[in-house]
Design goal:
This protein has 347 residues and is of the alpha/beta class. It is 39% helix and 14% strand. Bound molecules: NADP nicotinamide-adenine-dinucleotide phosphate and ligand F7E.
Length: 347
């Protein structure tokens, strides 16, 4: 039996790591693109990696960068994937105000570099674009696949561009290309500067007596927070349908940042008001106030529905931080000091 082959950009990120786990469980051969850094950046996938010289190895890593279209085209030629999951991006909204041009280059143009490489090489692979609820921005909730976009950041605007070129390549060239419009999804593997992980880490550290306060920005913003491990299942389902289409993935419930902070702190028996301080550095020049996704289409067509919602997510994330602290008070969740992966992956 021939195994399916997937190419995953952003495999070292939160979603990339859960997706790689899922695809390997489904017997795919998985190729991931990793950008070269002076330090190891593979800690989220180290547990999945085996020496590629072993005959049963099914996870392979390649250096590459979204800003380098020639390399992307060469990798597509080499890997010949059945499915491409395009997850790589400069994904931090606040940072996109500081680095708007870089964000446009990676998060926006990175998508068309991949699409154009697929078209030019004539591959008949299926393509998943990691679109975002940030595209809805200022448009009031609930948001679904028909809701107009009104992005409020360079990141949101870059994702709108990427969304439309994905649809354009579907319409113009008949490519099987889909947009998963995912609302916020979190996990113990979330980057530590996103608000949920930042708060979960702080609650655990403060409980353990290692920290006294945490500085935050806007506590009034409302988000529809789901669990990342479930959201990657929806990505896979989108590429298994007869026809390509776009889907909103969300829980349908919104909570304020303040609610999430309260859920994390009360889980460890603390009153958040004693520990949270305001810092205007964490405000954005323009904010997205309220996101609530309507994922009825995904439930109807894909049979996908969320199981973990925000209060449980907060507990799960704080518990993961407490466990990590109990293993070592110095090391964050899943972050070993060094990684053997790139050493083995080097050509
Ligand atoms: P993440 O943890 O920030 O991961 C981003 C990934 O992109 C990392 O692997 C990163 O590599 C890689 N990357 C960044 N710039 C790159 C470049 N120039 N070339 C190659 N790779 C590059 O993001 P995530 O939370 O997993 O999200 C995955 C995707 O879904 C992103 O496109 C994000 O914008 C989108 N999205 C996320 C959410 C959410 O709530 N998580 C919601 C909607 C959409 P390093 O590890 O080296 O940094
Ligand atoms: O902010 C507020 C902040 O950075 C959530 C990305 O995955 O989801 C994510 O974007 C809210 C905002 O996520 C702090 O102002 C308060 O209102 O965790 P966040 P995000 O901006 O919603 C979307 C769907 C994506 O696509 C993105 O890639 O929390 N907030 N105080 C803070 N946020 C941060 N980061 N840090 C604070 O101290």
């Amino acid at each position: 039996m021939t195994l399916k082959t997937a190419l995953v950009t952003g495999i070292t990120g939160q979603d990339g790591s859960y997706l790689a786990e899922l695809l390997l469980k489904k017997d795919y051969v998985v190729h991931g693109i990793v950008r070269r850094a002076s330090t190891f950046n593979t800690h989220r996938i180290d547990h999945l990696y085996h020496d590629p010289h072993e005959p049963d190895a099914r996870l392979f890593l390649h250096y590459g960068d979204l800003t380098d279209g020639t390399r992307i085209a060469a990798l597509l030629e080499q890997v010949q994937p059945d499915e491409v999951y395009h997850l790589a991006a400069q994904s931090h909204v606040r940072v996109s105000f500081d680095e708007p041009e870089f964000t446009g280059d990676t998060t926006g143009l990175g998508t068309i570099r991949l699409l154009e490489a697929i078209r030019a090489t004539g591959l008949s692979c299926r393509f998943y674009q990691a679109s975002s609820s940030e595209m809805f921005g200022a448009t009031p909730p609930p948001q679904n696949e028909s809701t107009p976009f009104h992005p409020r950041s360079p990141y949101g605007a870059a994702k709108v561009y990427a969304y439309w070129v994905t649809r354009n390549y579907r319409e113009a060239y008949g490519l099987y290309a889909v947009n998963g419009i995912l609302f916020n999804h979190e996990s113990p593997r979330r980057g530590p500067t996103f608000v949920t992980r930042k708060v979960a880490m702080a609650a655990a550290q403060i409980k353990a007596g290692l920290q006294e306060v945490i500085h935050l920005g806007n506590l009034d913003a409302r988000r529809d927070w789901g669990y990342a491990a479930e959201y990657v299942e929806a990505m896979w389902l989108m590429l298994q349908q007869d026809k390509p289409d776009d889907y909103v993935i969300a829980t349908g419930a919104s909570h304020s940042v303040r609610d999430f902070v309260d859920q994390c702190f009360s889980h460890v028996g603390l009153d958040w008001r004693d520990h949270v301080r305001f810092d205007e550095r964490y405000l954005r020049p323009s904010e997205v106030d309220d996101l609530v996704g309507d994922a009825a289409k995904a439930e109807r067509v894909l049979g996908w529905r969320p199981r973990v919602r925000a209060p449980e997510l907060a507990r799960l994330m704080v518990d993961a931080e407490l466990t990590a602290l109990s293993h070592t008070r110095a090391t964050a969740v899943g972050a070993p000091a060094a990684s053997p992966v790139l050493e083995l992956a080097r050509p």
